[in-house]
Amino acid sequence: MSPLPTHPLPATQRLFFALWPTALAAAGLARAGKRLHEVCGGRRTRKETIHLTLVFLGDVEVGRIDELLELAGDIAAPPFRLDLGQYGWWPHNRIVWAAPDGMPAELAELVDALRERLAGAGFRFDAKPFVPHVTLLRKAVCKASPLAAAPVAWRVRDFVLVRSASNAAGAAYEVIGRWPLARSAAAR
Ligand code: ATP
Ligand code: MG
After folding, report:
1. For the chain, which residues make up each domain, given as ranges?
2. Any ligand 1 atom below 6 A from CB of 80
3. What pLDDT does residue 2 have?
4. pTM
């Protein structure tokens, strides 16, 4: 006779869509983080976890994840180049970030396409205006902002769905879906 499970599986998972950097871009961003850490202190984002959030979903019912994977797979959007040359600090959440020099149209369109499909399917998500940024330091304190660090060129070729399971050691992320951006595609 099998005992009743003492730790039932959670009914929801914390999810977000993101861009995950290429090894080259991650290395450049980690270098920038190291440089800015010397100025502002705080806790550096580990190179393996550096990302740019596209849409934050928060808790999603496990039973709806397949629907999410399908919806993302229906998106046709082209690859693009992201030039991260802006660095700064937000005092309200003490984050030091890297941001693109300008918003590439392809990035805005990718986020719009995701939001539109998510809303259409009845998913809830953070609907604040999209402010593209890569968190490099947390709990940082800088004397000034903007900050200076070497720019990073990132060739964005895909987007991902990530499961976030934070524990005492910090956020643990697991990529649970990945979709290529196709040159022939125009974001719809
Ligand atoms: P932790 O919260 O454990 O410190 P984390 O912030 O990296 O770690 P999550 O809170 O799961 O992990 O967030 C995952 C990503 O989504 C991060 O890039 C985070 O900045 C972003 N994010 C979290 N909450 C929101 C929100 N309400 N709106 C927009 N983006 C969010
Ligand atoms: Mg968080």
Report:
1. 12-187
2. no
3. 62
4. 0.93
